[in-house]
Design brief:
Length: 136
């Protein structure tokens, strides 16, 4: 079992996190929530149990926006960086782009959600397994 300690944070450094592995369900998603939340066409996600994520920066926990019946999107109130999603269930999903070391093989996506929203002709094309409309 991978007990690695992952660290990361927002653009300005007010929000920092530590997440203890193993990371679960590494995947990419192109749903409209992800696109609007970030401005990006696709996001890369990894998930941790809530009790294994600690907010360590001077700004404490990120601000949240209630984005669905079961989850809120998290962002830095100072710089606006998208950080992840905090579910009502005890899961916190963090965006891979916020990790200090986001090339760890344990974090690489295994699947992709909402391929139907992937713009035709836009590269890189998803090479991971298509999970259709399933959302984290
Ligand atoms: Zn920030
Ligand atoms: Zn999504």
């Amino acid at each position: 079992m991978n007990q690695a300690l992952y660290q990361g944070g927002c653009l300005c450094g007010q929000v920092r996190f530590e997440a203890r592995g193993p990371a679960s369900n590494p995947h990419t998603c192109s749903c409209q929530l992800c696109q609007r939340h970030s401005g990006a066409l696709t996001l890369a996600w990894v998930e941790f149990p809530r009790e294994r994520v600690t907010w360590t920066g001077p700004g404490g926990a990120p601000a949240t926006f209630r984005s669905s019946d079961y989850s809120s999107r998290a962002f830095c109130r100072a710089c606006g960086s998208s950080l992840g999603a905090i579910d009502d269930q005890p899961t916190i999903a963090l965006l891979l782009g916020c990790f200090d070391d986001n090339r760890d093989p344990a974090l690489m996506p295994h699947s992709h959600s909402f391929s139907d929203r992937w713009p035709e002709g836009w590269q890189p094309a998803p090479t991971t397994q298509d999970k259709g409309g399933q959302h984290e």
